[in-house]
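Q: I'm writing up a methods section and want to include an example of the input and output format. Could you take the sequence below and give the corresponding predicted structure tokens, formatted cleanly so I can copy it straight into the document?
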Amino acid sequence: MYDESEKDLVRGEIDNISDTSSNSTIFQAGLTDKELAESVDRIIEQNQRLVPHKELIYRGAVLANDEGNVLDEHRHHYNDAEIDQLAFESKHSIRAQSWTMFLVALSACLSAVNFGHDESAVSGAQLDYIQLFDITNANVQGTVNAAPYLAAGTIGIGSAIFLDKYIGRKWIIFISCIFGVGGSLWQAFSQSMGSLLAARLFLGIGMGLNSSAVPLLIAEAAPAKSRGAFLMLWQTFVAFGVMLGSVFNRAFVDVENIGWRLMIGASFVAPILTAALVLFIPESPRYLLSIHKDEQALVSLIKLRNSELSGSRDFFILYNSLKRSEEIEKIPITSQINLFFTNGRVKYALLVSAFNMIMQQYCGVNILVGYTTTILVGAGVDSKTAIAGSIGIGGGCFLATFFSSQCIDRFGRRRMLLSTFPLLSGCLFWLGGSLYISDDTSRLGSGLTAMYMFVIFFGLGIGPISWTYNAEVYPLNVRVLGVAIGMAINWILDFVLSMTWPKMAQTMSASGGLFFYASFNLFAFFFAYFFVPETKQLTLEELDKVFSQSPLKFAKTKVLRLFRKD
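A: Here is the clean output for your methods example:
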């Protein structure tokens, strides 16, 4: 079923796709020496601030034109140290990154921790605040728990779209940290259900800002060969935050009266650290080019790469790719929205992004993360044991996602999705069946094992890969809006699932609800096989060609491959 060489297949399919996009952004290598020199001269003419960097830009242009290879006829442009750096970069895509790139990655990690921490903290804290505030209605319980996700998917994402063109990705992250700190402390000191609900809505605005800007910054800062691994850091450290929240839950469960407040208040630490770190990282080079700060974009890329030469190479590629097609120009939001209905390349990207974001929720993971303790307590397990058992949910997902980050650019996004969807379905059927076991010890053991296996497969598949697809599939002219739409879908569905689960478990039983979500994973396997293309190790500009074909044409090739005799 799977291809022997997914990368060769993808490259081959790109070659067979005609460039039907009127705004293709792909830089074409193979220029003559004269054309290359003229191209560099045009860059300098358009921005006189780049004059001091002309020689560096030219050497980067030579390297870009040779597709990153050090050719004998151009070897005199580089010194021995630069040649060694290029060789190291080619062999070690992660280890070769600059310290600045790792700081950007660390800021993404800390941003994600706050989100994951809150999800699991609520799982433990709700056992107390539901009783304290006498929240007996299942729908109200679900609304309070899910409130941040509604605010994130509406106000947070909407604000991110508006702010992006004025302050960029970096400062959106900083502002999100203010909401993160304030919301965490506010909910911890709440004295009524209304105050708690308002605090969680406030917290959610920061989550929406954060989740929109962080994957975008990572996608635009990381080089193509390691972009997938860096993008997966978001989900990896969401899982770490889940585990951290569960650890705090267990630590504070015995603290009388204020234990639940400590559980949900402890999440204020991560956004404080993130805010401090953001002050030291550069802005996205693509964003800087979009507002015509070309020299700052060059400086940003030099900081983000392991050498000046690598930075100037990527600057030349990026500058020509974007300027040539005039995607760098701002277009009205109404025109961007129109492209989602009229442009085939954008519509296909939306289909793939939306599918991944929908399935990240409808695979059922946030039911386990947000309601682990209530599911187990409802099955007869005491609260302390349930909270202790929930630690493995975040821990298993964290370890699996960390492993997945090492594999995503080797095995590919598509293959990992297809390998894990059937396993996710099986684990939910297993968990639902475990709740019918009469023996308490066997029920707990079987149920926890099914949960742990589920989050491991989630961490290897749709969990991190959904963020990767959402951040990389859109062209620049609609990328901010496209990423925001994907995030809005994710957050709103997170709200829907979290809000409706208490009522679903009440009417269908917990097992019935789990069987319901298990069926979605089976559907997702077939949809991914026929409609989701591979994107590994392709530049953000090369992806234009992948998505310029129609989804039906792609599906047809997969149907034919099923019956092909090799």
